[in-house]
Specification:
The structure is a homotetramer of 106-residue chains.
Chain A (H helix, E strand, L loop, with lengths): L5 H11 L8 H17 L9 H21 L4 H15 L2 H4 L10
Helix pairs in contact in A: 2-3
């Protein structure tokens, strides 16, 4: 098993094909939305999606998301943790527990 | 700094608020698409998006994507690598280099 | 040429195939988002989309949007006009002319 | 009640604010996807969306869809009818009745 990170593998893949030129932040954001639509299509008519198909589309969403983070010098783990801290303040446990209500209506 | 993984932090956050009940694969896929739309909004009228706002929305996309992977017992890194291998076969370097053309038209 | 409205033609098409059962408001909203992603794919790597392909995907977005309006007894023309009136108040001409800025920053 | 069509009202609204400059086909497609995400948000955690909020977001989807059709000299009604004819061939009644299966698996 390689000790190369997923990001390094992605970067090498894109460089090899000279594809970085297409990876503007805007194009990558469009790509995340496009793949998110394909992921959603697994559940178009109901709650049961085929696990393999979901894995395939989710991989595409994650791929473009990681490329976008890299393009803007963002650390995926760090921005998720940061956001979680902000979310914790908007949804204190005592008010939000067991409720899907948006924070401005808690 | 904690040695707790991002996923463990997310799981604890959701359990604390008793939110797992809302996290069906379908609802999580809808959430990925919703946040992907908010990410795209950073570039609605042009190519320059505010980096902080993009980081915020990208964090939301990644959060729901990680929760969905977890819900279906999928390893995010492994499914991205798997997909990359399949993509390499659809886009061999000699044919695809420097071109954004879809594989069925290479 | 028929004097049947587009909506009547859509309704007949769906009834003939016994498809109304799948057309819950939620499923139709998912469908609008899915097709919107396919429309966006026409512009994934740049500003020039193939007109025929755009027409095809836009037709799908419109189809599901019209079905959703019908399902909720909404008149498409009337809700667009209503929303435009509200938008006019958020974006008075003297403040908004020539600017793509969101209303809370005018 | 005005005899001005919805499109004419939209065109006047946009011209008055000098907004046509932002309405490239690409920007309008991004906008359709963005609003489709907001529409989907009405159903993020379940099947029941607030009818007024759905009407508001659906109006936004329709608005951008109509502007995009106009920008590319496409007649919304005609492209929906055209697409329906093609869909009828992919989903003949005898094979597709009562089934949500995609055409390549009928």
């Amino acid at each position: 098993m390689t000790s190369e990170s997923v990001l390094e593998t992605l970067q090498a893949f894109m460089a090899e094909r000279d594809w970085e030129q297409f990876h503007t932040p805007e194009n990558l954001s469009k790509s995340v939305a496009i793949e998110a639509g394909e992921l959603l299509e697994c559940f178009q008519w109901g709650a049961d999606g085929d696990r393999e198909r979901v894995a395939d589309e989710l991989a595409d969403v994650l791929t473009y998301a990681l490329l976008l983070a890299d393009r803007l010098d963002l650390d995926p783990e760090q921005i998720v943790r940061s956001k979680l801290e902000r979310t914790a303040r908007k949804y204190p446990v005592d008010k939000a527990k067991g409720r899907s209500t948006k924070y401005d209506r808690l």
